[in-house]
Amino acid sequence: MVNLSKELENAKTIGISGHIRPDGDCIGSVMGLFLYIKKTKPDASVHVFLEEPADIFSCIKDIDEIEDAKDCHEDFDIFFCLDCDKTRLGEAERLFDSARTTINIDHHVSNPGCGDYNYIVPKASSASELVYDLLDKEYVDRDIAMALYIGIIHDTGVMQYSNTSPKTVRIVADLLEFGFDFPRLIDETFYEKTYMQTQIAAQVLSECKLFCDGKVAFGNVTKETMEAFGAKSHDLDGIVNQLRLIKGVEVGMFMYELPTGEQKVSLRSRSYVNVAKVCETFKGGGHVRAAGCTVSMDVDTALSSILKCIEEQI
Ligand code: AMP
Ligand code: MN
Ligand code: MN
């Protein structure tokens, strides 16, 4: 386990980042750690780098302090890589590489650890849970608790997915002691969808196809559809889970086309297919029940190649 207070002791400049296209856990863990370090080291210069978070996360304190790594050329004393390995940091990878000390906190099975110090626990529900482990609980306050809580509910599907452990629930119990309005947070950051997001999901679901005797459900969104709806990647969150929940389906497969023409693939499984293994074949990764990859193929080729890999496990 990383000794956070010892590593931070002599650090004057500290940078924190997480993966590209940040999800709730990435944002929650990064912001939770950011708020904690600012509070415990008021004299240090602390910077947080992420791609622009979705509007739903505006309830997190100091979210507007997020910076674009492109504009930064500092060699930090310590740099944290959260919820991924350094190859998924995007622009911030450069800052990670030039830092004096690096710390990697993650829960992806596919990550062997890329820092001078690593806290990688594949069975943890989320990076947010791991950040909580490392904090001196005396300094945790309502704002830090709320950020980490958001991270945990996003990666566990509101404590529903199999990555939820008794420990996760105990941490959540500690966090709820701070008395924030959790039903509102769950609704507004997890379940609520805009009209546009609902319409695009409806289109994908009405056109989705079943493969492997109904065990795989596939849906996709083209670049043109993204443009027509004015949709960004985070507008598609949750669709893959709806595919997975179709009765009889073991694997939900969702793809959308990136501006580069590549396909961003998301896989979710219900009970026995190891989708991290499938995605690793395509240089991606993730968890046993939730994984992703990006492939330079057209939709049909991507679909048939990935189906072939899934079939080996069905
Ligand atoms: P997604 O389908 O993109 O929401 O990703 C599902 C899970 O897999 C998340 O925990 C992601 O962080 C992880 N993941 C997605 N893409 C990759 C990748 N290329 N490499 C490693 N992990 C990934
Ligand atoms: Mn993530
Ligand atoms: Mn995560």
Structure, explained:
The protein has 2 domains: 4-191, inorganic pyrophosphatase (n-terminal core); 195-313, Diaminopimelate Epimerase, Chain A, domain 1. It has 12 helices and 11 strands. The protein has helices at 4-8, 24-40, 93-98, 127-134, 142-156, 166-176, 182-191, 195-207, 223-229, 239-244, 275-280, 299-311; strands spanning 13-18, 45-49, 78-82, 101-106, 117-120, 209-211, 216-221, 251-257, 263-269, 285-286, 290-295. A 6-stranded mixed β-sheet has the order 6-7-8-9-11-10. A 5-stranded parallel β-sheet has the order 2-1-3-4-5. Helix 2 (24-40) runs parallel beside helix 4 (127-134). The longest helix has 17 residues, at 24-40. The radius of gyration is 19 Å and the shape is globular. It starts with a helix and ends with a helix. The model has no long low-confidence stretch (mean pLDDT 97). Bound molecules: adenosine monophosphate and manganese (II) ion (2 copies). The site of one manganese (II) ion has 5 residues, from helix 2.
Task: Compose a concise summary of this entry.
By secondary structure, this protein is α/β, with parallel strands linked by helices. The protein contains 12 helices and 11 strands.
List keywords for this structure.
314 residues, alpha/beta, inorganic pyrophosphatase (n-terminal core), 2 domains, 6-stranded mixed β-sheet, globular, binds adenosine monophosphate, binds manganese (II) ion
Strand tally is: 11
Helix count, DSSP H or I runs of 4 or more residues: 12
- Helix and strand sequence: HEHEEHEEHHHHHEEHHEEHEEH
Mean pLDDT: 97
- Spans with pLDDT under 50 lasting ≥5 residues? none
Question: In percent, how helical is the residue content?
Answer: 25-40%
Shape: globular
Which topology of the largest domain does CATH recognise? inorganic pyrophosphatase (n-terminal core)
Give the radius of gyration: 19 Å
What is the count of distinct domains? 2
In spatial order, strands of the major sheet run 6-7-8-9-11-10
CATH H-level superfamily title of the largest domain: inorganic pyrophosphatase (n-terminal core)
- Determine the N-to-C terminus distance: 37 Å
